Amino acid sequence: MSAAPEPCGPPEALSVTQLLAGAGRALAVAGPGECWVTGTLSGWRTSKAYGWGELVEHSADGRTQVARVPIGMPWAVMRQAGHVLSRSGVKLEDGLEVRVFGALEVNGRYAPLRLVVSALDPRTTVGSVVVARADLLAALEADGSIGRNATAPLGPAPLRVGLVVPASGGAGHEDFVVRLRASGHPWQLRELRVAMEGPGAPEAIARAILRLAAEGTEVVAVVRGGGAAATLAAFDAEPVARAIARCAVPVVVAVGHASDRSVADVVAHTSVPTPTAAAVWLVDRHRAHEATESAKTAADVAARERAETERVRQESQAVAARGERRLAQARMLVVLALVAVLIVILVVIAR
Hints:
Layout (H helix, E strand, L loop, with lengths): L15 H15 L4 E12 L3 E9 L6 E10 H12 L10 E11 L3 E10 L1 H21 L17 E7 L4 H12 L5 E7 L6 H14 L4 E6 L13 H9 L4 E5 L7 H5 L2 E2 L3 H76 L1
Parallel strand pairs: 3-5, 6-7, 6-8, 8-9, 9-10
Antiparallel strand pairs: 1-2, 1-4, 2-3, 4-5
């Protein structure tokens, strides 16, 4: 085993702080300075004072990360950007394509090299979200995914209901269940609670939909109460849309309020504005089915009554006809008897 090499250079060694300070000075002299940078957020986390993660560049096909740089965003910048983005239903989170203004900084406490953001261009960020949504809808239309779930068979009165709800439950979930129970029908509910916000939400929702369909439910309801538009981003994501299109049973989407319409709403068998409306939709199907069955029963009873009345009428007519025939026969016999008596009398007189 060879001996460790002797330290080279001057007897004094630089501290980590000195080393990074030198790198920082070199960066200030030869670096790009403040500039605009585009990339995709990854590993995004926040505290009360700061947001941090990475800005990632992907290959043209989107499958490979070709470059990344740590990123930091002070609270003031994060608050201003978040306020502007939320008005368009966009949230700072993993997977969001952003255009930021900032400068590279060397800081040993956080990362050897990071991009400190001083501004974010909301127009570019919001525009990329709108374009991505439009592209997804076009792709779903092109491959026939839109309308596919609408053809999934749905019985007139489904009772086995799969329910996808937020991990925390929420008032929307409670309203849905209470409204179903109040109807008095023997519902069989199979419930899965999943994250409906954050980076993993689209995949979690998609898995839950397909799992419930595979477990023998007759219909799957995706239920979530209203909230800020930015919190509903998962329902504009491709995994959710694809899962609904592939689902073998009808999917009812009840997410947000009447003003919110997501890609999931477009792809689903049925879209209603609120969880309560979803429960009403199911209950109304049962009531309509019961009304139809009651009408059929009433019609059957009326038909049987008409048939019985006709049978009695025909029997009465037959009895009356038989009576008339017998009366006619009796009259004939009387006439014949009278004729016979008359003949006998004539014979006697003739003698």
